[in-house]
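== Protein entry: sequence and backbone fold ==
=== Local backbone shapes as whole numbers ===
==== Amino acids and backbone structure tokens ====
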Amino acid sequence: MLDRLTEGRYRSTIHRVLNASGKQRLSFPFFVDPAWDAEVVSLPLEGCPPADNLSERWDGKSVHAWSGPYGAYFTNKVSKCFPELFKSLKV
């Protein structure tokens, strides 16, 4: 969402945990999402946003072209990440 809200100015953190220390560690992800029906629009930031980086994005989608309710964004994301789960939900 951060990437979408800022039109690519701030990239979302890659959600991976790799413990290269050889010691035990805990990871506590913290996610904040808008309301399901919240209309997602870009924040009013100054300056021109960066050009699209479609080849680097996991979904190949433009951060400049997307708009709509958060629920539609999330449902679309889940359907691409977990296609079998999405089919079973009958959405």
The mean pLDDT is 82.
